[in-house]
């Protein structure tokens, strides 16, 4: 009995990898074995950097809050400690947005902590 090969599925699998490699440069976009490695590595980076993105944004928010609070002669850690003590539950994301886009409201939050 002749060997049965599921070439339909194999072709579909290769096409899927090559379509994921669209936009890559050189042989990475049209040679299956090279494209497969490039796509795998790209997906690994994507997974890793979804985690790193959260880390980067948190660092950015902290820098923005720190810059906003320095105008009122306070450090970031001092400010966050006072916020926690007063029970003001604003996230760093919101505080950073206020510091950047709405200084008056941010000033009110700083005054609420007992300084300014």
Structure described in brief:
The chain is an all-alpha fold. 72% of the residues lie in helices and 0% in strands.
Distinctive features:
single chain; 116 residues; mainly alpha; c-terminal domain of poly(a) binding protein; 5 helices; rod-shaped
What do you see in this structure?
The protein is mainly alpha-helical and 116 residues long. The chain has one domain (10-112): Ribosomal protein L20, C-terminal domain (c-terminal domain of poly(a) binding protein, Orthogonal Bundle), CATH 1.10.1900.20. It is 72% helix and 0% strand. It is built from five helices and no strands. The chain has helices at 7-20, 32-70, 76-86, 92-101, 103-112. Helix 1 (7-20) packs parallel to helix 2 and helix 2 crosses helix 4 (92-101). The protein is rod-shaped, with a radius of gyration of 26 Å. The model has no long low-confidence stretch (mean pLDDT 93).
Indicate the topology:
Blueprint: H1 7-20, H2 32-70, H3 76-86, H4 92-101, H5 103-112
Helix pairs in contact: 1-2, 2-4, 4-5
- CATH class category name: Mainly Alpha
Helix content: over 70%
Question: What is the H-and-E element order?
Answer: HHHHH
Query: How many structural domains in the coordinates?
Result: 1
Structural category is mainly alpha
Gyration radius from CA atoms, angstroms: 26 Å
Number of continuous helical runs: 5
What is the CATH superfamily classification? Ribosomal protein L20, C-terminal domain
Strand content: under 5%
Main sheet makeup: none
Shape: rod-shaped
What's the average pLDDT?
Answer: 93
CATH topology category name: c-terminal domain of poly(a) binding protein
């Amino acid at each position: 009995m002749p060997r049965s090969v599921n070439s339909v599925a194999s072709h579909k699998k290769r096409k899927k990898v090559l379509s994921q490699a669209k936009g890559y440069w050189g042989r990475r976009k049209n040679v299956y074995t090279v494209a497969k490695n490039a796509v795998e590595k790209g997906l690994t980076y994507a997974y890793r950097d979804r985690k790193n993105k959260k880390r980067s944004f948190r660092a950015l928010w902290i820098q923005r809050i720190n810059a906003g609070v320095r105008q009122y002669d306070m450090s970031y850690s001092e400010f966050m400690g006072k916020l926690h003590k007063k029970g003001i539950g604003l996230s760093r994301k919101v505080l950073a947005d206020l510091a950047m886009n709405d200084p008056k409201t941010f000033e009110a939050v700083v005054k609420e902590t007992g300084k300014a």
